[in-house]
Amino acid sequence: MAGRTSPPHRTLEEYAQARLTPELEQTIQLVRDLLGDADDFLCRRFQVFGRTPAALFYFTDLSNQSMMNQDILQPLMQGPRHLKGKSVEPDRLKRVIAEEALIHGECTLESNVYQLLDAILQGQVVVAVDGLDEAFIIGSPAVPKRSIAQPPTEQTIQGPREGFIEPLIFNLGLIRYRLPTPDLRIHIMRVGRITKSKVAVCYLEGIANPELVREVKKRLQSVDIDGILDSGYLEQLIEDNHWSPFPQIQNTEKPDRAVGQMIEGRVIILVDGSPFALIAPTVFVQFYQSSEDYSSRFLQGSFSRLARVIALLFSLITPSLYVAIISFNPELIPTEFAIAVAGGRAGVPFPSVVEVLVMEISMEVLREATIRLPQQVGGALSIVGVLVIGQAAVSAGFASPITVVVIALTTIGSFATPAYNAAFALRMLRFPLIFLAGMFGLYGIVVGLILIGNHALSLRSFGVPYLTPAVPGNWQGLKDLLIRSPLWWMKSRPALLQTGDAERVGQETVANQGSQNENVLDPNAIDGKEAGNDGRAGKDGYRHPSDGDSR
Predict the structure, then answer these.
(1) What is the Cα–Cα distance from 137 to 133, expressed in whole angstroms?
(2) Residue 551 pLDDT class (50, 70, 90 cuts)
(3) Which residues touch 163 (CB under 8 Å, ≥6 apart)?
(4) Which of 389, 404, 409, 387 is nearest to 344 (CA)?
(5) What does DSSP say about strands 107-110 and 52-59: parallel, antiparallel, or unpaired?
(6) Do β-strands 464-465 and 267-271 pair in parallel, antiparallel, or remain unpaired?
(7) Alpha-carbon distance values, 369 to 351, 356, 372 (Å)
(8) Taking the mean position of all CA atoms in its chain, how far away is CA 345?
(9) Closest to 245 in 3D by CA, of 453, 428, 13, 448
(10) Residues paired with 107 in a beta bridge
(11) CA count, 13 A, side-chain hemisphere, 447
């Protein structure tokens, strides 16, 4: 137990160059000393082919017990049929076990002590045999997992409904299922001194820029932290500007969205234990785009996107605009409406800026409470909070009816933004805009928007300007900015990614869009003489509905 005086990760690092000895008892003692007195750790002794001592190491809560009994213990203890009653020389024992006895598909030989202990901690089974300087690592993890379902944060009406789950191997399978191409590259590394979390970097070779791939790997390899429990940890550690309210790395729970971004030339980062994939690089326009925009017809997708952009503007400037007009520029609204607003505010003892701030803070508290409560209770609380508290505030003279309407429009507009982290950034920026509007009126709003725009212009995500393709402008990117152009019109991949293969839509597909399609089932094209008027079918076997009954 001498190795337990230092932290666990340093204890294992001391054995990074250590090699396994042929003495089975020394191996058992070393593993027990390093893994400690864990009640869920077992060392199972048995005889290989009934002759050679061996030991099997595993954690009971991480390994598949039935598979271990059928595919590991039973074949090793009974041995192959053609070796019944025969002895196996020590120099042949390793090959016989690996190639003739074990029937499990995932089996490797390893002599490094660090790698063997890491395999046990990851839920695999290690078999050490007396006289062999290498042990067998057999994959048998049985980590509990939830079923694949539609992500609750990215609801769609049209399109795939699958979502990532926590185990990395299943998430990689969802990506590989949608990209059956040899160009798909998946590189797995370990991040975290204690957790040693698996982090997968996924991209398409020949499309993704090699410099982008190298930069992503460089940032991940430079991360030195004790543990990575979610992809959000990595997002904070590898983003360009840590003090910006705008997210510079997008996350998604939808495999189809992740694959779509890879096809465009981006890099996807997955973390074992997290259902969120990170997308790099990211620009601002991605946060109000939805995967449903591309699954539906371009008119429908463009209309929905424009509605989201309008909702985004509502959620950002509506409260501050209301404060500025009421406090400084009431002449900008019609007289009848101004009189109605003044009548509604007659009994309110606070200035408009204080009134709006109090209502905004109340709405944020209500929103946070709704999220944290159980789903069955949260829905009821949101309805009660909006109806009862809002009506009570108006009746008590605490807020005017027009203020309640403004806050309601603002809240609904923030819900229309598909990305939660982008909507949260806009919610935070509302408060300084309200303060500026309360102090300087419309001038304050203009100054605030200029500062926000200037900050957004200074942001970059892995070297890509944050407001691309608007600034700097790019014609191909503008086709997918405010509206979603037809797929055949977006012929090239985004220029901002500097992809290896820029062509997205073939020339033949583009040429066919301008040609007149043949009306193969046009009723006017049927020759009445061929079809006949007596109900008999024409030469092509088609019976026209207007022929009537032949009887």
Answers:
(1) 13
(2) very low
(3) 148, 149, 150, 151, 154, 253, 254, 255, 275
(4) 404
(5) unpaired
(6) unpaired
(7) 27, 20, 5
(8) 46
(9) 428
(10) 138
(11) 13
Once rounded to an integer, what is the mean pLDDT over residues 432-458?
Answer: 95
Q: SS3 for 381?
A: helix
Radius of gyration of the chain (CA): 32
Question: With contact defined as beta carbons under 8 Å apart, do 516 and 533 qualify?
Answer: no
φ, ψ of residue 232 to 5 degrees: the values are -60, -30
Sign of CA dihedral 47, 48, 50, 52: negative
- Residue 542, pLDDT above cutoff 90: no
Question: What is the spatial order of strands in the sheet that 41-48 belongs to?
Answer: 41-48, 52-59, 125-129, 135-138, 107-110
**Contact assessment for residue 495 and residue 473, using Cβ atoms and an 8 Å cutoff:** no
Query: What's the rounded Cα separation, in Å, for the pair 278 and 237?
Result: 12
Angle at 516 between CA 513 and CA 522, to 5 degrees: 130
Say whether the peptide bond before residue 469 is cis (omega within 30 degrees of 0): yes
DSSP string, 78-99: H--GGGTT----HHHHHHHIII
CA torsion 398→401→405→407, rounded to 10°? Answer: -10
CA distance 300 to 304: 6
Report the C-alpha gap between 85 and 79 in whole angstroms.
10
Residues 134-164 have pLDDT tens digits of 999 998 777 777 888 888 888 888 888 899 9
Peptide linkage before 334 cis (omega within 30 of 0): no
For the chain, percent of residues with pLDDT exceeding 70: 88
How far apart are alpha carbons 30 and 128 in whole angstroms? 12
**Tokens read off for 375:** 């789903």
d(CA 19, CA 111): 5
- Choose among 103, 33, 95: nearest CA to 68: 103
What ranges in 328-351 are assigned the alpha helix state H? 335-344
**Can you give the pTM of this predicted structure?**
0.85
- pLDDT-derived band at 57 (thresholds 50, 70, 90) equals very high
Residue 471's alpha-carbon distances to 283, 467, 489, in angstroms, are 11, 5, 21
Q: Report the first-to-last Cα separation within the chain, whole angstroms.
A: 98
The position carrying tokens 């108006």 is 394
Count H helices and E strands in the chain, helices first: 22, 12
Which pLDDT value is given to residue 96?
87
Q: Can you read off the two tokens belonging to residue 514? A: 């301008």
Q: Across residues 497-522, what is the average pLDDT?
A: 74
Q: How far apart are CA 481 and CA 60, in angstroms?
A: 53
Query: For residues 110 and 500, what is the distance between their CA atoms, to the nearest angstrom?
Result: 39
Q: Name the DSSP class of 492.
A: B
Choice between 535 and 162, residue whose per-residue pLDDT is larger: 162
384-410 pLDDT per residue, tens: 666 677 778 888 888 888 888 898 889
Do residues 83 and 49 touch, judged by C-beta distance below 8 A? yes
Question: CA 281, CA 266: separation in Å to the nearest integer?
Answer: 6
Q: Give the SS3 label for residue 270.
A: strand
Alpha helices of 100-156 — where are they, by DSSP H?
113-121
What integer pLDDT is reported at residue 95 of this predicted model?
87
